[in-house]
Amino acid sequence: MNWKQLFPQFEPELIELIEKNAVERSFNAGDVIMRTGQYIKSTVLVLEGRIKIYRENNEGGEFLMYYLGAGDACAISMICAIQSKTSEIMAQAEESTEVLMIPIQLMDELMSKYKSWYQFVIQTYRSRFDELLSVVDNIAFRNMDERLEFYLKRHAGKTKKKFVELSHQQIADDLNSSREVISRLLKKMEQRQLVKLHRNMIELA
Amino acid sequence: MNWKQLFPQFEPELIELIEKNAVERSFNAGDVIMRTGQYIKSTVLVLEGRIKIYRENNEGGEFLMYYLGAGDACAISMICAIQSKTSEIMAQAEESTEVLMIPIQLMDELMSKYKSWYQFVIQTYRSRFDELLSVVDNIAFRNMDERLEFYLKRHAGKTKKKFVELSHQQIADDLNSSREVISRLLKKMEQRQLVKLHRNMIELA
DNA sequence: CTGCCCCTGTGATTTCAGTCACATTGTGAG
DNA sequence: CTCACAATGTGACTGAAATCACAGGGGCAG
């Protein structure tokens, strides 16, 4: 795949080096890309599709943290890759997804030699950290109705559509809530004209 | 202050460079070191004392994220400093605290020239990211009683004492809960022989 | 000693969210 | 068309935590 236009800030030399050493990989919707406790041997750049990054607890509950889309990098894979540590999160493809895996051995060289790469890594850390902060804000300070609104907006924002094609159950899972609660809150939102409900699809006003 | 032994991994040359350019600063218990929306012009290293990093919302609620102690660096100040962005968190001294402020202009040079600095920064990112993950875990998956236990252990752990010298109200603030709830849960813990309650002080079993 | 303020204990009530139970509806396979 | 199944709607109940109201009690300033 021709991915260069996703990273216009990279120097040609850097792109060449990545191309020579990195491996492209495809995942189908639903594939688990990384799981809790797994060792990480590469830094992951997303070229196409969408990856869900979430936390799982031992009782089967899960909790969505954020999404990665084309042009994003996985901050956790960067940190873990550099230190050869295990990851503490789950990553799952939401759609058909293409990624570029850059072996850790290359990281040090890229960081020291290419300013654009260094900037990109810092930028990635910052974005993820900020997203994590807003996640903390939401669960610490907001009720489920506000969290649901935030979730729908974020989901629609990334896909650039006015539709969220998910069942109530899937939304409940992402928010670590239950289907009935989400159904009821969605009904209330419909009464407030914020959404229109369809089967497997929510239309944002 | 002689802080070199806190960072034994730093090369002499690196230490010298920091010494020449950084500014030491003291804060008293209760001083706000950084507030939401403030621009950051320096990276902060903690030399002595203890800093509380927390999130504040517009309705006066607050929520503790983690502490920084001697030898720690503020990951957020690093990220923000490099990008000259505003911070999204509050930092407050819990005790008398000494910090070293390294001007952002120096960051790029340190990162590219000193491997030990680069490693330190990466290590800092990782630790804070992990702490933030465990914060998310706690509020997403745990009830208040478990969160309280976790809070007490963490608080005592950092101070290396078996005592937590806080009023119930302060604990409630940190957990974004209310005083009565904390009092009741502490009573239950006392009945389970996990703690002994005193005025302004909790003794861990 | 006394008055005041802060810290703590505790009951009553309310609200939000999770759970259980079951009804209804939409859709695709055959 | 019909059946099976997944998605959705809804009432009843439960439990966790927030809130309200108020009662003691300890410590300190004067």
Brief description of this entry?
Chain A is of the alpha+beta class. The first copy, chain A, has helices at residues 12-21, 75-83, 104-113, 115-141, 144-159, 168-174, 179-191; strands at 23-27, 32-34, 42-48, 50-56, 62-69, 90-93, 97-103, 163-164, 195-198, 201-204. In chain A, the strands form 3 sheets. A 4-stranded antiparallel sheet of chain A has the order 2-6-4-5. Chain A has a 3-stranded antiparallel sheet with strand order 1-7-3. A 3-stranded antiparallel sheet of chain A has the order 8-10-9.
Within the largest sheet of chain A, what's the order of strands?
2-6-4-5
Which bin fits the share of residues in helices of chain A?
A: 40-55%
pLDDT averaged over residues of chain A: 92
What is the approximate shape of chain A? elongated
What assembly state would you assign to the polypeptide chains in this entry?
Answer: homodimer
Structural class of chain A, by secondary structure, is: alpha+beta
**Helix count of chain A?**
7
The N- to C-terminal Cα distance of chain A equals: 36 Å
- Uncertain segments of chain A of ≥5 residues (pLDDT<50)? none
- The run of helices and strands of chain A is HEEEEEHEEHHHEHHEE
Which value, in Å, is the CA radius of gyration of chain A?
18 Å
Question: What is the total tally of β strands of chain A?
Answer: 10
| Biggest chain pair interface | A-B, 34 and 34 residues
Please state roughly what percent of the residues of chain A sit in beta strands, choosing from under 5%, 5-15%, 15-25%, 25-35%, 35-45% or over 45%.
15-25%
Largest sheet of chain A: 4 strands, antiparallel
